[in-house]
């Protein structure tokens, strides 16, 4: 998850009986009132040289805005975001099954963190290509701090699972039964399950000169078995590897007839462990230990070697993704040291790369519980997304958009108008052409179905598919093939710049003229994500915006010099510089004594020039609020530099994904929504767009929705100047949740706007 769903928070303090890693919390107060603070500690930066004066002790004129002390490390900030996600599993305001989901999300997030970020750092060291960011920290130091903090986080994860989540689920009659607790009926049923479902397809591999260590794919589930004795051929070897069959579920529900009551489950690991001796008849199994290997999963497609076939190059690279270099070993905490050392040697890993765990490896597999038990009382209450009244009652989507612009905020408002726009366009004989960018959507999604139908109905359909959307490459290749088979023109954007912009352009013949209808969004065209991520959708018939989108598509599908756009901001050409100009304009207004204000809401903030511009604006006196869900390298609260900057991270039921740039602009606010985060890759190395909210009422609405986030005191983590995150503390009987407020205002509520 990379982007994954997270749940809604109205924070109560954790009970004093819970052991909490000191690296994660500075304090947990005893059996406290709702709203007491929880602090996620900073991950330490490079120590100062003995002669160096701390930046807090320097005069403003002595501070260089390029000083590494002013920047947090990107990877360590990323790890802290994962820590904030993990903390949601402790929040008693979440239903217990959703607290379990948070543990699964944390596990999935950590997988991607190791597959991409840690793997990248290791590659730098391996190939002597070390680079440092604005923080100046060497990759070797970063890896050391990651290992230190990640080990503490993982230990905490399993303590939460074993000491909090499992017992609370047992209180609700949802039980995960250990091997030692199976009754006779359960043991007999499990034995039959193993005999009928597992034994025929398991292929144990003894390790000897004729049986080399098997090549294990990334994140596959395996056992290392310690054996004693000689086999029928007289061979004697101490170890064997047992790959768990990928076709078997990792969690198996026991039938009601062998249980007293409730929902009862056993782990596949327990089933295989209990019957490991049947895999090695006549041998003595001294020990059986589950483990999982994480490998580098980042695809490296060399643009210079692609030639004319990006799709072919990507297909070739996908075949090797599962067998990249090793980066992490997770193994049962009771595995003997000599076996662990043997595996580390085999995988060319160091001691800091091994994670000894007290429970099943790959907790993300516990998501299966949601399908195995029918307990809606233990999950979030469902809701119906809202829909503006005029849009719901219109005689047709195009007629409605022609009358006015529409702004939708998902998931509180329905994603269906976006799908309906394409579906209606596919059937409408007046529609002559459709162009769309796709980043993540699915080969069989409603969006894909509408594009296929449009192409088959003779529309000119052109789709820009970004094949390199991480971990969705195979799905995007399948989507491209399906669209091409239907007759659509499919292109893959620009080789060295990912196409991340979210745009639909529909050209409709109305009387004697061609009219352009446009959708622009901050998120992906994925209906499932639209129920889990917060994103904006904008539907308009604005002539100049339509012309701008047309020009952007010209650049993506053809070849041309930079084309001037009137209203959109377009990365990598104008977006970054225009943002810097707007920040500087606020700073200049502040210097003149005019009112000034900046609010930016993004997933991550790392682009150094943007951070420096914000520092300068703060120095000029601009009040700046940054709502940064994940990575933030900017250091707030430094006297003379960033004392006017506040940074908060909202972690809730939904994954915060909207990107909003708000500037007061001397009483004439500028509001831009965008697909782009404040990161170097988004502003400088991707095709992105930011689009203005020109309608006064809609702009005022966006500002109001931003204020919900700024007023949040239950889901909001405040970044401190030392790098720690502190949970906002509500006053008694004053609990404000941005996501709940937005749900109340927008969901299941027909509105006039």
Automatic annotation (TrEMBL):
Catalytic activity: [phosphate](n) + ATP = [phosphate](n+1) + ADP
Post-translational modification: An intermediate of this reaction is the autophosphorylated ppk in which a phosphate is covalently linked to a histidine residue through a N-P bond.
Residues holding Mg(2+): 440, 470
Metal-binding among keywords: yes
A Pfam family annotated for this UniProt entry: PP_kinase_C_1
Polyphosphate kinase N-terminal domain ranges (all copies): 71-176
Binding site for ATP: 109, 533, 629, 657
Residue stretches making up the Polyphosphate kinase C-terminal domain: 397-561, 568-739
A Gene Ontology BP annotation from the UniProt entry: polyphosphate biosynthetic process
Entry-linked CDD domains: PLDc_PaPPK1_C2_like
Protein EC: 2.7.4.1
Listed GO MF terms: ATP binding; metal ion binding; polyphosphate kinase activity
Gene3D superfamilies registered for this protein in UniProt: Endonuclease Chain A (3.30.870.10), Polyphosphate kinase middle domain (3.30.1840.10), Polyphosphate kinase N-terminal domain (1.20.58.310)
Family recorded in the similarity comment: Belongs to the polyphosphate kinase 1 (PPK1) family.
Name this polypeptide is given: Polyphosphate kinase
Species per Swiss-Prot/TrEMBL record: Marinomonas balearica
